[in-house]
Amino acid sequence: MPTIDALSDRLSSYLSTEQIQQVRRAYFYAEQAHTGQRRRSGEPYIIHPLAVANILSDMRLDYQSLMAAMLHDVIEDTGIPKVALSEQFGDVVTELVDGVSKLTHIKFESKEEQQAENFQKMILAMAKDIRVMLVKLADRLHNLRTLGALRPDKRRRIGRETLDIYAPVAHRLGLNSVRVEMEELCFDAMYPMRSGLIRKAVTNARGNRKELVDKISTALRNRLKEENLPSRVLGREKHMFSIYTKMKEQRKSLNDILDVYGFRIVVESVDMCYRVLGAVHNLYKPIPGRFKDYIAIPKTNGYQSLHTTLIGISGVPIEIQIRTEEMDAMAKHGIASHWLYKTDNNEMAGSQRAQQWVQNLLELQQSAGSPIEFIEHVKVDLFPDEIYVFTPKGRIMELPKGSTTVDFAYAVHTDVGNSCIACRIDRQLAPLSSKLQNGQTVQIITAPGAQPNPAWLSFVVTGKARSNIRHFLKSQRRSESVSLGERLLNKALSALGRSMDDIEQERIDLLLEETSLESIEDVMEDIGLGNRMASLVARRLLAASRDTDIDLEAFDNEAPLAIKGTEGVVVNFAKCCNPIPGDPIVGNTSSGRGLVVHTATCKNVQGIREDAEKCVILSWDKDIDSEFSVDLRLYLENRKGVVAELASAVTQADANIEGISVEDRDARLSVTQLQISVQGRKHLARVMRRLRAIPGVNKIVRIKN
């Protein structure tokens, strides 16, 4: 059972007497606040905060973090307000405690949303102080150590949540010892049978392998001594969860994975790391392609080491990691080693990288539509496999494995991503969907006015790229919906001889109250999306108006709404009839899709032609330079080269072929389907004249419905 006196003795090795007194004061305050409370195991509740503080003391964290660990459940579980805590212990400690506390007073639709909201709150607190996450990880680790008191289903749920979020966060912050223990405990909780079998096999193998491990260790030590390279050689234990994931991912048997022997060599300086590498390569033959230099290019979490795989005695593979003492501390404690090696003017690279990662998370959080969407993006960015590519100026960019050039563009800057139109990989033009490889140099070509393409969502992998594309498309959709809604509402009002200028503010306020919307723009967005009828909104705005000379039944809907073809995602052209400029057109307001444009003769709108609420009379704008798709069916005689002549005729008429298919009717006749893009009916007539002039073309039909 841990005690505050035992903790105080441990802290005396690196904290001052005054700081230890502050930690003790926080302990006694928490002990009093939690009086009468017990954990599921039956122990007094104060055991938990004390254990969390002990975990943080292993990382040699500062006294404020230890005080926050003691108090981290006080606000949530004892009813003591934040203000009272602030008066007792100051703002810094209180903000740490608040960042760790869960959101208890808000009702959520689902458990997932609650977890996502909690994580989002922690990210915001981390942005102010990274220690929030260190306390939270220690809290989660102790909860995992005491999972035995919970029901199996709850154990599995907590295990899954930890593996999804907390263990990868620990990895990202470089807290390797915390991550490994979390994974082992979660593996035990989720798959007790599998965990037991692997543990038993590893224990048996360890006895059988001891002689070979000792032989390899001795050979390594002797060679390094001969070369006058002082170092520590340590055997690396394999962890149950990493063995299990390797078996699953690499489809290998347990024996294949246990046959690899791991060693760590710790030396004094970076220079010595490379000299040791040369010495071990002289002792055993290295396997080509298995050397990685994480000293020159550190991992995202600040991890540095040289990795190499050798073929040792009797042909067994040996994995070796070579690093300095500081790198070893960073590998075990990650960002926590920032406090271990902290000096007045020197921050470790790992701390800066962690802060940069948190800033990236903040950007994600601002552009995500909901906590659940945010946590999905974060999960993507937590996967540890990285690739390293270069900007044209030689700057190294770290990206998740499988990233494309669009992911790279957004990693450089959001504006670069939003306006990219093409790219060069190693000076060669390449598609934006190209997957990047280690060591490539990537140049992004941008253009003013360019916009993200919705199709990018099908291949981007980073959370930053995905959330920024979605955010842009959402805001673009809103502005287009508001614009269309405003036009439809003005049209409905003008049919009644009024405009928005004639509507009193109190009428608008009344409408907003009835619809539970915040602004008139929200009403217009709903109209533009087809969720509300412009005519009904116009009637509602005028129904209680002071004007009494308006005949609400005398709707004149004949003033058509002009369509340009560039309205964006809220004006859609029906695939059933493919309307083009010059065709008589009508619009059908469809919920969620906005306005769907059909030809006036389309069978699909005949049923709603008389419904003034759903049908909108449209016309084409005079200045249209967009292109529209048209389907043509050509009946022609089979002869060599006729398809090439068709393509040539379409090109000469300044049109483009989007699709072509040929179906043989018999030995003499065939039917060709052409999909072409034209600017209107006059342009289409010009194309059809060219096609009719080709010998052998018997008949041309424009396909509608």
The level 1 CATH classification of the largest domain is Mainly Alpha
CATH topology of the largest domain: Hypothetical protein af1432
Count of DSSP strands: 20
CATH architecture of the largest domain: Orthogonal Bundle
Which residues form runs of ≥5 with pLDDT under 50?
Answer: 103-108, 340-348, 546-558
Q: Largest sheet at a glance? A: 6 strands, mixed
Helical content band: 40-55%
CATH superfamily of the largest domain: Hypothetical protein af1432
The secondary structure category is alpha+beta
- Shape category: globular
Describe this protein with a few key phrases.
705 residues; alpha+beta; Hypothetical protein af1432; Ubiquitin-like (UB roll); 5 domains; six-stranded mixed sheet; 20 strands
Report what the structure shows.
- By secondary structure, this protein is α+β, with helices and mostly antiparallel strands.
- The protein has five domains: 4-190, Hypothetical protein af1432 (Orthogonal Bundle); 198-340, 2-Layer Sandwich (Beta Polymerase, domain 2); 351-469, Beta-grasp domain (Ubiquitin-like (UB roll)); 471-620, no CATH class; 628-702, ACT domain (Alpha-Beta Plaits), CATH 3.30.70.260.
- 49% of the residues lie in helices and 16% in strands.
- The chain contains 27 helices and 20 strands.
- Helix 9 packs parallel to helix 11 (176-190).
Quick rundown:
The chain is of the alpha+beta class and 705 residues long. Helices cover 49% and strands 16% of the residues.
Helices and strands in order:
Layout: H1 4-11, H2 17-33, H3 47-58, H4 63-71, H5 74-78, H6 82-89, H7 91-100, H8 111-128, H9 131-145, H10 152-172, H11 176-190, H12 192-226, E1 232-235, H13 240-250, H14 254-258, E2 261-267, H15 270-283, E3 285-286, E4 292-293, E5 306-311, E6 317-324, H16 325-333, H17 337-340, H18 349-367, H19 371-382, E7 386-390, E8 396-400, H20 405-412, H21 414-418, E9 420-425, E10 428-430, E11 442-446, H22 463-494, H23 505-515, H24 520-528, H25 534-543, E12 561-563, E13 571-573, E14 585-590, E15 594-599, E16 615-620, E17 628-637, H26 642-652, E18 656-664, E19 669-678, H27 681-692, E20 697-702
Parallel strand pairs: 2-6, 12-16, 13-15
Antiparallel strand pairs: 1-2, 3-5, 4-5, 5-6, 7-8, 9-10, 9-11, 14-15, 14-16, 17-19, 17-20, 18-19
